[in-house]
Amino acid sequence: MTSLLACAALVCSIGLPRSLGGAEPPVQKVYTTRAVNPHPPVIDGRIDEPVWDKVEWSGDFVQREPDEGKAPAQPTSFKILYDEKNLYVAIRAHDSEPDKIVKRLARRDTVDGDWVEIQFDSYHDHLSAFCFMVNAAGVKSDMFLSGDGEVEDPDWNPIWDVETAVDGQGWTAEMRIPFSQLRYAGGGRTTWGVQVNRKFFLSQEISFWQYIPRDASGWVHCFGELRGLDGLKPQRQVELTPYSVGSAQAFRAEPGNPFATGSRSSLFGGLDGKVGVTSDLTLDLTINPDFGQVEADPSVVNLTAFETYYEEKRPFFIEGRNIFSFDMMGGDGDFSQDNLFYSRRIGRYPQRAVWAGEGEYVDMPESTNIIGAFKLSGKTRLGVSIGVIDALTAAESAAVGFMGGTRQEPVEPATNYLGLRFQKDYRRGDTVVGGMITAVNRNLKGSELDFLHSAAYTGGLDINHTWKNRTYSIQFMTAFSLVRGSEEALLKTQLSSLRYFQRPDADHLKFDPTRRSLGGYGGTLTFNKFGSGHLSFSTGVTWRSPGFEVNDLGYTRYADVAMQYFWAGYRWWKPFSIFREVQVNFNQWVGLNFGGERTFMGGNVNFWGRFKNYWQFGFGINRQFPGLSAEALRGGPSLRTQGGWNLWGNLSSDTRRKFQFSLMGSSYEGDRDYRSARSLSVGVTYQASNALTLSLSPEFEAYKPMLQWVTRCALGGEPRYIMAALDQKTAGITVRLNWSLTPEISIQYYGMPYVSAGTYSKFKRITNSRAATLEDRFYLFGPGEIHSDPAGWTYSVDENGDGVSDYAFPNPNFNFLQFRSNLVIRWEYRPGSVLYLKSGIQGTRYRIKRFGSCPRIPAFLFKDTPQTAM
Fold it and tell me: How is domain 33-230 classified at the CATH fold level?
């Protein structure tokens, strides 16, 4: 098992500067705005209209990076006005050398070069903020922050206007932000939190209006105050976006295949909508949503027992997703993606696979159609956050062509997905209590889909309590799950790779083939320190009971596990010697199953830093100790695993330069040659002009385990767990081109050729999976005991040497080649209105042996379905 947390820290102070933590918190700044009815400023980037004289400039920015607390190299100042409908912001970024201002064009939300940003805590809950950023070229970006700035939602896309201009004093930005795009409590005299930031690109300097120290524990609660917003009224927000999409495909025709005639075309439409129910609650809805502009998932070959996790990229689901998240554990390890809500389940790849028989052709749908969905989200003036999402997906069928006719085979039932999330703030956000409920209900007709749950429910409670200016915190969450269905569905659940109830050596598990329901629970308890000094740490426990199952609408890879962990980090951010900042980390973890057996244990030390020449580096060493793998034999007894050492490192160049590169590599070496893995990736970026960027990212990986799962066969009623040595090599290259004609018009190209080939050898059967000595765990087949047929399709095993095959299995060698690409032209012809033109290519070729007495279906052919033991 890999590292289960993000970087962790080892305290070490030899030869490094002393901590400067413990200073008095900075004085909170206040800006007072005024109303400008009825003649607001014209948004043209020129801050020369008399209306701006109604308020004073505010400045006195303070550096945060690289020289914390010092005056910035170039001063910055701003003004804020408002009327009944909008906020108006003017920012003056002084520059004594305006010809050196870096103005880089890019697509929205890809801001580079010199930029300024304003952030509003309009709820004034000291936890959330709406952020508006623009660079000197006029490229805008926006983001919603929650969790006191810990959670970022860059996919929030409000409708607002901004213009920039360059003059002899530097450059200016002028913004108009409609109140309808913000969430706030209306009424009489209103106070908001506010922060203004600037990045001076040439020196990579970041300065703030309201100074926030680097060791501050949190972000939003440190903002200054915006006063003078008197008598704000709730704004009506109604946005309806009808759309139509036409597509045409051309491909190679296959004689006799009714679904591969050489071309295919389609035309469909739908509607997206956004309605402001109140000034603090928003209703989003979609009918037959369009995800045509979404970039394809990366290529992957998955030989594990678990499904692949893919990031959500569909606009309807990513905007505001922080509201619906019930994250069961942070970090970046094996448990970090566990969540009660994983939106990729909605509109998923169909869960039933239909294979073509002799003389048949199959046309499988690539996804499940979402008939309609809505979500209601926001935060009331009482500090209650609400998130409700409901989606209905259609029943899907695969078309099977045979002898000139077709038939329909059901592959996914009509399903309703419901999620309800709520949180309540106490003590000005220092304590937050919340909960979540999800429900999945499927309309199962016929017996073909009886392997699916008819209903699945989850619920959870979470509490986050902080004290001492949010320096210390205790976080507790607990969740339960309940699934119901036919005996076939619950049999599949019990045999799933998450739990393997049928394991012969798991006395603490109860396998019941007549079961019609299954319940479970999980949770996490942590104690943390962040900020108020250079040392941070987190320690805690997390657990998932054997029956815990949330994958109908959530995501988890493991059940029957409990883990204790400790993380600590020490960071220096004051420049010294050749460094701008350095962090050294330590991490430790140990895991048990619910039978009390230790299944994994490890730790690591790693370092991260930035040089004064703006290059960055990172490296570390990880030790994984011997353990027990419940999934290695796909439902057989647990397999004792060897430990190993992992080294990794990365280096990246100065991002201010036209040519940029990054290098990342890792090397894992298992004890006694149990497993080895080498990986190397390179990133090269060329900023050809302020409008054109090219990047190449080749990568290579060599993976050589001694014991890689092949299949399970039987001899005389006894199981045979077949494993082999694997030599797998994987290579790919990601190509990106970004050409921005204006801040509103961009052309993007993405391409990724990918190849992975695996050769199996040294076949063996497991004899004593828990033996202390590695060689005692298996029996290596000799030349006279295993034979390949002349065509290389099948291996036959003769265990007793009588010349008669006892069992056979297919040749597991594979060769997977895929090319994915798309070209997207994006034109935001008016704020909030976007036209896309997309052209894409996807081709896949693979060679897999699937013949013999023990058929094997490779895991990587499944899109996102948890794997059952094969």
Answer: Immunoglobulin-like (2.60.40)
Q: What are all long-range contacts of 793-798, with beta carbons under 8 Å and residues at least 24 apart?
A: 793/849, 793/851, 793/852, 794/849, 794/851, 794/852, 795/763, 795/852, 797/713, 797/720, 797/763
Strand arrangement of the beta sheet that strand 34-35 belongs to: 34-35, 76-82, 86-94, 170-178, 161-167
- What's this model's pTM, rounded to 2 decimal places? 0.86
Closest to 127 in 3D by CA, of 421, 462, 466: 466
Which helix (H) or strand (E) is 564 found in, with range? strand 561-572
Contacts of 802 (CB under 8 A, 6+ apart): none
Residue 552 one-letter amino acid: D
Task: Report the pLDDT averaged over residues 419-437.
Answer: 94
Cα–Cα distance, 562 to 598 (Å, whole number): 10
Q: How far is it, in rounded angstroms, from Cα 199 to Cα 789?
A: 67
Q: What was the pLDDT predicted at 112?
A: 92
pLDDT band, residue 852 (cuts 50/70/90): very low
CA–CA separation, 847 vs 839, rounded Å? 28
Mean pLDDT of the chain: 88
Distance, in Å, from the CA atom of 576 to the CA atom of 806, rounded to the nearest integer, reads: 70
The 8-class DSSP code of residue 547 comes to T
Q: How far is CA 43 from the centre of its chain?
A: 36
Q: Tell me the torsion sign for CA atoms 361, 288, 395, 554.
A: positive
In this structure, are strands 778-780 and 745-766 parallel, antiparallel, or unpaired? antiparallel
Distance CA 194, CA 33 (A): 12
Name the DSSP class of 508.
T
Residue 487 near residue 517, CB atoms below 8 Å: no
- Pair 575, 612: CB distance under 8 Å: yes
DSSP assignment letter at 489: H
Cis amide linkage into residue 66, ω under 30° from 0:
yes
Residues 460-489 have pLDDT tens digits of: 999 999 999 999 999 999 999 999 999 999
Neighbours of 157 (CB within 10 A): 20
The model's confidence at residue 187, banded by pLDDT at 50, 70 and 90, is low
- Asked if residues 300 and 860 have their Cβ atoms less than 8 Å apart, the reply is yes
Tens-digit pLDDT profile for residues 188-224? 678 999 999 999 999 999 999 999 999 998 999 999 9
Domain coordinates in residue numbering, the chain? 33-230, 274-278+280-299+309-559, 626-870
Task: Say which range, 316-325, 745-754, 782-791, has the weakest mean pLDDT.
Answer: 316-325
- Torsion angle of the four alpha carbons 95, 98, 102, 108, in this order, in degrees rounded to the nearest 10: 80
Q: What is the rounded CA–CA span in Å between residue 390 and residue 438?
A: 10
Report the 10 Å Cβ neighbour count for 33: 21
Q: What is the pLDDT of residue 864?
A: 37
Question: Can you tell me which residue has the tokens 């294979």?
Answer: 355
pLDDT at 15: 33
Please say if the pLDDT value at position 4 is more than 60: no
DSSP state of 813: -
User: Is residue 537 packed enough to be buried (19+ CB in 10 Å), middle (13-18) or exposed (0-12)?
Assistant: middle
- Cα radius of gyration (the chain): 29
Give dist(CA 826, CA 838) in Å, integer: 9
Please tell me the distance from the alpha carbon of residue 45 to that of residue 58, in angstroms, as a whole number: 18
